[in-house]
Design a protein that fits this description.
Layout lengths: L7 H29 L9 H4 L6 H14 L4 E7 L5 H13 L6 E7 L4 H14 L3 E4 L8 H9 L4 E4 L11 E4 L2 H19 L5 E6 L5 H17 L2 E7 L4 H14 L6 E4 L2 H14 L10 E6 L2 H8 L5 E4 L5 H12 L7 E3 L4 E3 L7 E3 L2 E3 L1 E3 L2 H6 L2
Parallel strand pairs: 1-2, 1-3, 3-4, 4-5, 5-11, 6-7, 6-8, 8-9, 9-10, 12-15
Antiparallel strand pairs: 10-12, 13-14
Helix pairs in contact: 1-3, 7-8, 9-10
Bound molecules: alpha-L-arabinofuranose.
């Protein structure tokens, strides 16, 4: 134990952070001098230089590691869910753009192909590589405490993005969406839209996302809460695994089992909706604006909004995949020795065409829907 009461590892991590902060301060001071042409160094660089590192050997080790880490390069490991959807492609691109070599990062990216064991292995390989930060988008919400403890023991800060970890708090920050709110929004919109259309009975088929992911759990729970509140019938809920093929397969079976019995299809992402559309086209089921079947989707990626514009998807509830810039803010805060927010929520919108835009509230909070136009589609991911 060190005099501070911290373990050797914790002390080393604290020193590392302090030294990185010191070096960054020095770099910033130097660039200010160059940029401003001033001959005075900012006073901020001075006090940290007087800090005493008590264990000389540990300090040398830390200085060596820190020199490596601040050689202009911050090593980041990112264990991504997979490549199952347009949303996922946008999320991956966002991270690769932000954590690029040009921005001073060395990114180890692993596409875990929706395999929970492979995702844990990826995290352990990042620990072995000695990355500076680990980003995880957890495929499922549980089973994380052991590997997150290993990251903690190695002194590597973990940032969770998109989906949540529900059985461990051993991470620095989470940046993502409120999936429960998304599901509630879909249910509240459906009630308001059905009332406006004079539809008195809702018979819904749900194609859910990957079972056990927080995105699936939140959207299912949120929509079910509204179904219970307003008396919608949920005829069935089966997983399409967030894929187009999965959505098509489930909808093909629904078209056979529930022919003529449903008036709402809820797909928990755009790609499932595309698959469901193919299945309904093949089965001769009309859907979307001006038909008897309301099609609800989540994500609101570019291709999803194009289907809203075409009147095929009746309303689309956004899940914003552009978390990486906020993750970078978390890293910058840690680099400068600060404490980032534990939770950062992405801003999201609910999309429809003008005739499908209705007023509704979530837990008493009035919602504003966004009209899908060509400009809105062009600005989307
Ligand atoms: O976790 C976010 C969800 O995962 C998105 O809704 C979906 O498209 C993705 O695969």
């Amino acid at each position: 134990m060190y005099p501070s009461g911290f373990s050797k590892k914790e002390e080393k991590y604290k020193m590392k952070k302090k030294l990185i902060s010191l070096l960054l301060t020095g770099v910033m001071a130097a660039s200010l001098l160059v940029g401003c042409g001033s001959s005075e160094a900012p006073a901020a660089a001075e006090p940290a230089a007087a800090e005493v590192v008590e264990d000389a050997a540990a300090a040398e080790e830390v200085v060596a590691e820190t020199a490596e880490a601040t050689d202009g390069v911050i090593k980041v490991g990112f264990a991504q869910v997979g490549h199952e959807s347009d949303w996922r492609t946008a999320s991956t691109k966002s991270c690769q753009d932000v954590f690029s070599a040009a921005n001073g990062y060395d990114l180890s990216f692993v596409d875990c192909d929706n395999d929970e064991a492979a995702q844990k292995e990826a995290v352990r390989s990042f620990i072995e590589q000695g990355v500076d930060y680990i980003i995880i988008d957890p495929i499922i919400a549980t089973g994380w405490d052991t590997v997150l403890t290993e990251c903690d023991d190695a002194g590597i800060p973990v940032i969770i993005i998109d989906r949540t970890v529900d059985d461990s708090d051993k991470y620095v920050s989470w940046v993502g969406s409120n999936f429960l709110t998304e599901g509630q929004a879909a249910g509240e919109w459906l009630k308001a839209y059905a009332d406006a259309q004079g539809i008195s009975e809702i018979n819904a088929l749900v194609i859910s996302g990957s079972t056990g992911s927080s995105a699936q759990i939140g959207r299912s729970d949120g929509f079910k809460e509204m179904a219970d509140k307003y008396g919608f019938n949920i005829l069935d809920e089966q997983t399409g695994d967030f894929t187009e093929a999965g959505g098509q397969e489930v909808m093909e079976s629904y078209c056979k089992s529930y022919a003529g019995k449903f008036n709402v299809v809820v797909c928990q992402n755009d790609n499932e909706a595309f698959g469901a559309m193919t299945a309904m086209d093949n089965a001769g089921v009309a859907y979307g604006v001006g038909t008897d079947v309301i099609l609800i989707s989540f994500d609101a990626c570019t291709a999803g909004l194009e289907e809203v514009k075409a009147g095929k998807i009746t309303a689309d509830f956004e899940c914003n995949p552009l978390a990486a810039p906020f993750v970078e803010e978390v890293i910058k805060t840690l680099q400068s020795g600060g404490t980032p927010d534990k939770e950062v929520y992405m801003v999201e919108h609910w999309y429809a065409l003008p005739d499908q835009i209705v007023d509704f509230s979530i837990n008493g909070e009035a919602q504003k829907m966004t009209e899908v136009t060509d400009d809105v589609i062009a600005a989307q991911y």
